[in-house]
Specification:
The protein has an eight-stranded parallel barrel, surrounded by seven helices. It has two domains: about 230 residues, Phosphoenolpyruvate-binding domains (TIM Barrel); about 30 residues, no CATH class. It contains eleven helices and eight strands. By secondary structure, the protein is of the alpha/beta class. The protein binds 3-methyl-2-oxobutanoic acid (KIV). The site of 3-methyl-2-oxobutanoic acid has 11 residues, from loops.
Length: about 260
């Protein structure tokens, strides 16, 4: 495992992207990404659920196994789905199942509210990545994907969360759609790296859902993402070309007489 705290100290930015399958994981790994996350965003961008709350442990484990086959260099982190870490005992049991599936670290959503679970996981010797700010598994209670840290009390709660997860043994913390100035403050007051998503430039690293980065989920793109590719357009173009070729009888053969 790379020394991510050392990278923070040196000011070397940490890069992280999601993967849910073997080819994507292998391509990202070969590109030199530092961290690959099997995120439970899987539920939305791969499985077609409306949010992440329907993702099951079996689905996450199956995709983690596929990703693990494609990763050689990057740190492989897996998301623990909702209701698989309700108690410290359950959290450790779930984390161990991810390690058996090939993950090198696990992530769950929550700060001070989940310190006992985080401590149990890190004391079991499993590296842990925290996730605070907007918590997608709570989107129904929250009534949407809302920016965090706008009020004084929200900002104080976020800083308390960041300190708590560091103390509980997390090696890094994801800050999801946190006001940029609060993300900067958190980055300055904790020793572990902050990995931002929609939280501004001052975080120690950045993470994105790969489908957003490469334009593979064209029906919704978060405001903070500037896609680097238009893969959905390429799929449509290739499919249309295949349909036209097939319908016009222009089909290649593998046999020598053709
Ligand atoms: O599920 C996920 O992909 C995530 C990232 C957005 C941080 O948790």
């Amino acid at each position: 495992m790379k020394d991510f705290c050392e990278m923070k100290r040196r000011g070397q930015k940490i890069t992280a992207l999601t993967a849910y399958d073997y080819p994507t994981a292998r391509l990202l790994d070969e590109s030199g990404i530092d961290i690959i996350l099997v995120g439970d965003s899987l539920g939305m961008v791969v499985l077609g659920y409306p949010d992440t709350t329907r993702v099951t442990l079996d689905e996450m484990l199956s995709h983690t196994r596929a990703v693990a086959r494609g990763v050689k260099e990057a740190l492989l982190v897996a998301d623990m789905p909702i209701h698989t870490y309700d108690t410290p005992e359950q959290a450790v049991k779930t984390a161990k199942r991810f390690v058996d599936a090939g993950a090198q670290a696990v992530k769950l959503e929550g700060g001070t509210s989940h310190v006992t679970q985080i401590e149990a996981i890190t004391q079991a010797g499993i590296p842990f990545m925290a996730h605070i700010g907007m918590l997608p598994q709570s989107v129904r209670e929250e009534g949407g994907y809302k920016v965090k840290g706008r009020t004084q009390s929200e900002a104080e709660a976020l800083i308390a969360d960041a300190r708590a997860v560091e103390k509980a043994g997390a090696f890094s913390v994801v800050l999801e759609i946190v006001v940029a100035d609060i993300a900067k403050q958190i980055t300055n007051v904790i020793g572990i790296p902050t990995i931002g998503i929609g939280s501004g430039e001052h975080c120690d690293g950045q993470i994105l859902v790969t489908h957003d980065l490469i334009g593979l989920f064209p029906w919704f793109t978060p405001k903070f993402v500037s896609p680097e590719a238009r893969v959905a357009d390429e799929i449509r173009r290739a499919a249309t070309a295949f349909i036209e070729r097939t319908r016009s009888g222009n089909v290649l053969s593998n046999s020598a007489d053709k």
